[in-house]
Amino acid sequence: MGLLSDPVRRRALARLVLRLNAPLCVLSYVAGITWFLALAFPPLTQRTYMSENAMGSTMVEEQFVGGDRARSFARDFAAHRRKSGALPVAWLERTMRSVGLEVYTQSFSRKLPFPDETHERYMVSGINVYGILRAPRAASTESLVLTVPCGPESTNSQAVGLMLALAAHFRGQIYWAKDIIFLVTEHDLLGSEAWLEAYHDVNVTGVQSSPLQGRAGAIQAAVALELSSDVVTSLDVAVEGLNGQLPNLDLLNLFQTFCQKGGLLCTLQGKLQPQDWPSVDGPLQGVQTLLLMVLQQASGHPHGAHGLFLRYRVEALTLRGINSFRQYKYDLVAVGKALEGMFRKLNHLLERLHQSFFFYLLPALSRFVSIGLYMPAAGFLLLVLGLKISSAARCLFVASLSHALELWMQLHEAGVGPEQAGRTSGSSPPLPATQRVGLASLVAPLLISQAVGLALYVLPVLGQHVAAQHFPVAEAEAVVLTLLAVYAAGLALPHSTHWVASTQAPDRSWMALKLVALIYLALQLACITLTNFSLGFLLAATMVPGAALTKPSGPRPLCAALLVLTSPAATLLGGLFLWQQLQEAPLSPAEGWRLFLAALAQGVLEHHTYGALLFPLLALGLYPCWLLFWNVLFWK
Amino acid sequence: MVDTCFLGRGFTTLVGLLLLPFGSLAASQIEDQAEQFFRSGHTNNWAVLVCTSRFWFNYRHVANTLSVYRSVKRLGIPDSHIVLMLADDMACNPRNPKPATVFSHKNMELNVYGDDVEVDYRSYEVTVENFLRVLTGRIPSSTPRSKRLLSDDRSNILIYMTGHGGNGFLKFQDSEEITNIELADAFEQMWQKRRYNELLFIIDTCQGASMYERFYSPNIMALASSQVGEDSLSHQPDPAIGVHLMDRYTFYVLEFLEEINPASQTNMNDLVSICLI
Q1: Radius of gyration for the alpha carbons in chain A, expressed in angstroms and rounded
Q2: Which of A169, B93, B130, B217 is the 20 to 30 Å CA partner of B15?
Q3: pLDDT interval class at A489 (50, 70, 90)
Q4: pLDDT tens digits for B85-128?
Q5: In whole angstroms, how far apart are CA A403 and each of A268, A509, A627?
Q6: In sequence order, what are the residues at sequence separation of 6 or more whose Cβ sits closer than 8 angstroms to the Cβ of residue A184?
Q7: Facing residues of A111 across strands?
């Protein structure tokens, strides 16, 4: 008989697991962390390769020579923009029309949940301008997008110039089988989101936008371009998108092969590619890049306009030109050639990009780790929770079994027969009463924790005006401070819970609460890990030890400190410090605190403007779960 | 790779042999046999040229077929005796930077599409069923004359196939395959119905030699571009068009055929020996 279907062996296995519970938990946790750190090393990481046959090699002739034209367009754009203060819509329309595109505009406006500090705007309205290059001999069923997001502080005029020069060059070619849309958005990502929603005819984030007059078919791929100067020393590529979504790896492979062909320097997460993979230095640098990618993916922040395209299953990348102090610089022609090559190869596509991976981690631009190889890391961490759940369940089962057994013995000794015991147990025995009390002592903390979580989610934005009236702070600060206040108020909960459930709870019912909390945590972390591995792994790595070790007995201050240090907010703070450290710009504590407050505000803002899920996940899911463990710790 | 066999006058079996310089005796025996081929008195020539791949990145298969078509037509077989099957239209594909042309040499030296191409089976009509019906003659009566192989027992037929293949099969249009057994059976039906005098079968795919392994009809000479386990290589990458323009084997066949004029003395052995490059 098999191991799990044979009852004798199953009991033996269960006994072994329960006896070795603590060592197995520690081993599993260590295995998870080690596996994660080993992801950058050779057997777990592979070289990237092009999977899509239609895109093939880089065998195209790039003929773009419009460097001067691009620069003159950029100068004009910058001048008009300075004059008008906003996006020069009329100039853009005129220029796009002169280049030969079909030009359309779209106006949008939205009310922000609270005015953010940097721009101090409450109502954001703008106009997006886009031009469509129709494929000369095809049916306009598919399209590619080249987008340049323009915001108030990042003028991105060089990118606009390059885009217009590329449009002029593309217009003269007859080999386009897909339409190409050249999109200039106002207010950065807000404009991009408005355009995408109108294009796909949905309304996900509550932005009011005028409907689009011109459409071009299903978008197959998109490239977002950000250039701050007309010479670049390297191109940085960003892949992480909203809620940790990633584009198909083939798009990144395409970019990388064209950079190699053109001799362009490409960076990922701002870091150059390590050359020496056989030795140890390469993989060590890979670990840093991997950690940066995990942190960025976990934040759920769209790191560029491409992040918003991913929600509609349009594969997209953001390319940023970096101008550092290197000797060798590339001009706009080199960047333009790389883009031309990419678009020409994307033109060859017959289907959406689907041959390569959608879930991966990147220790370097030419190395990746596939989902099958990185998932075990999270699996080991969740196994710890599974082991703890099984031991807690057994303890509870044994406890309640021994309790029932005790009761039966008492009844038997008192001379009552089994039938009468059965009869009396149906009427008002003490057992259901204790059970009822046990249930109340379970339900009350659950409800109260969830209510605090709901308050954390709803109060900051709702109550910002009230807070701003009573305290001398701006609305954005009021939101953040309300967040922190509600979070800290939750720490005072255990006393209030006991105030509600006034009867003396039986000794063992903290175990029931811990069991429920463990199951809740395990379910949430499993679901999060499946969609956003980085977020799930980070939260599991920090919350699992605290969750596993919590109990009312033992050194309370120490456990309390551990639990606070592994709460979601502390994880966020720690993540920020780690991120800055990895980027070789370490923060002082004061700077770090300020960055933390800014990140909180940004999280709430992104949830309302783009539908980012980090804030509701933490507020409505993980924070109440963490509060349950806090309740368990302070059980009387 | 060459496959020849004569065993006396009976012409009873047909086997694939590897032509390696084993011994002068064997070589000269096969050379004699090859020289005897195509001299047994036929009265008409036919050609069935099949390209089985679609999609833009399979441009080279269409170019292969069209270059053989061009040579065959130039050397004297009229359109009425050629059945040309092309599975996709490369000349008018929106991705073609030179519309209405199909080039076989980079730098666009030779346009094999020309002005007078007559495609008999086009696009989705190129299926295994249609191909086998053409070969065996079991065609519905409404089929026009240009789509029929009206050969008799004094016809010499060239059958050229190209596309993506594997060990024992050739892929048609991304949705079906023809196996070497089916092909061998079709040729046997042709023999039984007295539809050919001699057959020259040329195939340019990966593992092409597997397609003639099962032939059991007499009077068939088969050439393939690669052995079992080998890939056929593409040739002529052209950055201006963005695809490979030809396959290597057919490129050399085309070069060979371009040099043939009415006064040339080249024979089958020369055609056979180009594949040893």
Answers
A1: 29
A2: B130
A3: confident
A4: 999 999 999 999 999 999 987 776 788 898 889 999 999 999 99
A5: 60, 12, 29
A6: A87, A92, A128, A129, A130, A147, A148, A150, A160, A163
A7: A123
Q: Say which of B55, B94, B240 has its CB closest to residue A61.
A: B240
Q: Per residue in B138-158, is it b (16+ CB within 10 Å) or e — as a string?
A: eeeeeeeeeeebebeeebbbb
- DSSP 8-state secondary structure symbol assigned to residue A118: T
The torsion angles phi and psi of B45, rounded to 5 degrees, stand at: -115, 140
Q: Which chain A residues are closer than 8 Å to B242 by Cβ?
A: 59-61, 175, 344-345, 348
Tokens of B242: 């963005």
ipTM of the complex: 0.80
8 Å CB contact of A348 and B95:
yes
Residues in chain A closer than 8 A to B94 (CB atoms): 135-138, 175-177
User: Which of A169, A174, A220 to mutate: most B Cβ within 10 Å?
Assistant: A174
Touching check for A347 and chain B: CB below 8 Å?
yes
pLDDT tens for A103-145 read: 999 999 998 888 766 666 678 899 999 999 999 999 999 999 9
Q: What is the spatial order of strands in the sheet that A46-47 belongs to?
A: A46-47, A367-370, A360-364
Dihedral of alpha carbons A159, A162, A168, A172, sign: negative
From residue A417, alpha-carbon distances to A410, A420, A423, A429, B106 in Å are: 11, 5, 10, 15, 101
Burial of A539 (0-12, 13-18, 19+ CB in 10 A): buried
Length of chain B (residues):
277
Inter-chain contacts counted by CB atoms under 8 A, chains A and B: 45
Instruction: Answer for the pair A253, A48: CB distance below 8 angstroms, yes or no.
Output: yes
SS3 A146: strand
Report CA Rg, chain B: 18
Helix runs in B163-247, H state only = 180-192
Going from the C-alpha of A296 to that of each of A225, A520, A590, B227, the distances in angstroms are 19, 26, 22, 51
- Measured CA to CA in angstroms, residue B262 lies from A408, B51, B74, B75, B78 at distances of 113, 28, 11, 8, 16
Helix (H) or strand (E) holding A200: none
Say how many CA atoms lie within 13 Å of B25 toward its Cβ.
Answer: 0
State the average pLDDT for chain B. 86
Tokens found for residue A286: 């890979």
Write the pLDDT tens digit of every residue in A387-401: 998 888 888 777 676
> Quick check: A353 and A315 in contact, CB under 8 A?
yes
Instruction: Confirm if A255 and A222 have CB atoms less than 8 A apart.
Output: no
Residue B198 phi, psi (nearest 5): -140, 145
Contact, B256 vs B234, CB < 8 A? Answer: no
In angstroms, what separates the C-alpha of A145 from chain B's closest C-alpha? 18
DSSP code per residue over A278-347: SSSHHHHHHHHHHHHHHHHHHHT---STHHHHGGGT-EEEEEEEE--S-S--EEHHHHHHHHHHHHHHHH
A175: CB partners within 8 A, 6+ apart: A344, A347, B94, B95, B96, B97, B242
Encoded amino acid at A292, one letter: L
Tokens representing residue A209 in the block: 């936008």
Spatial neighbors of B48 by CB under 8 A, at least 6 apart, are B82, B83, B85, B134, B135, B149, B157, B158, B159, B160
**Alpha-carbon span A531 to A297, nearest angstrom:** 11
- Candidates A235, A82, A257; CA nearest to A159 is A235
Q: Give this prediction's pTM.
A: 0.86
- Tokens of residue A135, six digits: 């494929």
The residue of chain A nearest to residue B236, with distances taken between CA atoms, is: A59
